[in-house]
Design brief:
The chain is an alpha+beta fold and 371 residues long. The protein contains 13 helices and ten strands. Strand 9 and strand 10 form a beta hairpin. Helix 2 packs antiparallel against helix 3, helix 2 packs across helix 4 and helix 5 runs antiparallel to helix 6. The radius of gyration is 27 Å and the shape is elongated. The two termini are 35 Å apart. Bound molecules: zinc ion (ZN).
Length: 371
């Protein structure tokens, strides 16, 4: 989860969070329910009742979105795919699924589970409406929630990847071509088309005097950039698929003794040798890792008095990968932990370092070779 996130707790073991941007949309929705939607539907309520009903509607609307995401998550978990988090933000909600689905059928069922949950919710709120016949605020709330859940179903039928409808589309292309990455690129390009289409329609609405078009354009922009990053990811995955950490890792880490001072290290190895990462050794063992980043955190005046062992990252606190690990899996590991490099360990010996730059250099080489 990001720093702009307030944790709400866990459901089914999945951490649920609210992004700061959510409060903006919550305030906007409450305001618009309280000042225009409910006053138009039900004249002559007390102002406080409009605001209370407006806020309750906005909260239940996001509870509905949360249930929609939990719908996806339950099916993903059944396929043993980890769900890392569910996050509510300005455009709704998103469940971060930890891995690609194992098959086109799994993809289809995970994608359909969300809109199906919303459809059930729409039905339930619709059926609950008559029960609240004598209580207008409750009746109005049920009516709106039935409506908005149904809109959520319709919106998610648009085949614009990464929206649910786009995932359904990808599942079909995947099933037909038997190639997930190709299906992703095709589906994501369709998603980008819809993104541009929404931007265009939104701008057109704005020029026609309808400021609500800004919202449409924003959703289009969000969709387009999400689809683009999916295309890029698929391209990278395609390029490095089948390659291992050993092929891309740097072997140029110099070994330095634990008692070496930072001053010596800089003079002899950084300025003298142009190295950027160091394995700190004590006798035959590697005990830690020194990076330039770590070095910079120590004031220059302390360099002569500080040893490498005092500022290194101890090796047993670091995650590592094996030389035969897939490069793509290693990259995902880095993303998960938010680190820029991983020591490569074989038989309890550090045999190299995999840094993000190594992966980029490797990608460039592959591209030049015209893989
Ligand atoms: Zn969904």
């Amino acid at each position: 989860m990001t720093r702009h996130n307030i944790p709400l707790g866990r459901v089914l073991g999945i951490p649920i969070g609210i992004d700061y941007s959510w409060f903006l949309i919550f305030a906007l929705l409450t305001w618009s329910f309280a000042t225009s939607y409910f006053p138009a539907e039900f004249p002559r309520w007390a102002p406080a009742l409009y605001w209370a009903t407006g806020a309750a509607t906005a909260i239940l609307m996001f509870a509905s979105v949360l249930l929609h995401e939990l719908g996806h998550s339950v099916v993903a978990l059944r396929y043993k795919i980890p769900v890392r988090s569910i996050n509510l933000f300005i455009f709704g909600g998103v469940a971060t699924i930890g891995a690609e689905p194992p098959s086109a059928v799994a993809e289809l069922l995970i994608a359909v589970a969300g809109p199906f949950t919303s459809l059930v919710l729409a039905g339930l709120f619709w059926l609950a409406k008559p029960l609240a016949a004598g209580v207008p605020p409750l009746w109005g709330l049920f009516k709106y929630l039935a409506y908005i859940n149904f809109v959520l179903v319709l919106f998610n039928l648009i085949p614009a990847y990464p929206l649910d409808g786009g995932r359904v589309f990808r599942a079909f292309v995947w099933g037909a071509t038997r190639n997930m990455r190709r299906a992703t690129v095709i589906a994501a390009n369709v998603g980008r088309f819809f993104g541009f289409f929404f931007i265009f329609v939104g701008m057109w609405q704005v020029f026609a005097g309808n400021l609500g078009g800004l919202w449409t354009a924003f959703i289009g922009w969000f969709l387009e950039s999400a689809a683009t990053s999916q295309v890029q990811q698929a391209v990278v995955q395609d390029l490095i698929g089948g390659h291992t950490v050993a092929q891309a890792m740097g072997r140029s880490c110099a070994a330095v003794p634990a008692e070496m001072t930072l001053q010596q290290l800089v003079d002899d190895h950084v300025l003298g040798g142009g190295r950027r990462c160091f394995l700190v050794t004590r006798g035959p063992d590697t005990v830690g890792l020194m990076t330039l980043h770590r070095l910079r955190e120590v004031p220059r005046s302390e360099w002569a008095r500080t040893s490498a062992a005092q500022v290194m990252l101890p090796i047993d606190t670091l995650r590592s990968v094996g030389p035969q690990t897939g490069l793509w899996a290693a990259l995902q590991e880095m993303d998960r932990d938010g680190v820029n490099q991983l020591p490569v360990v074989s038989d309890r010996r550090v045999v190299g370092m995999l840094a993000r730059e190594d992966v980029i250099t490797f990608l460039r080489t592959l591209q030049e070779l015209g893989k």
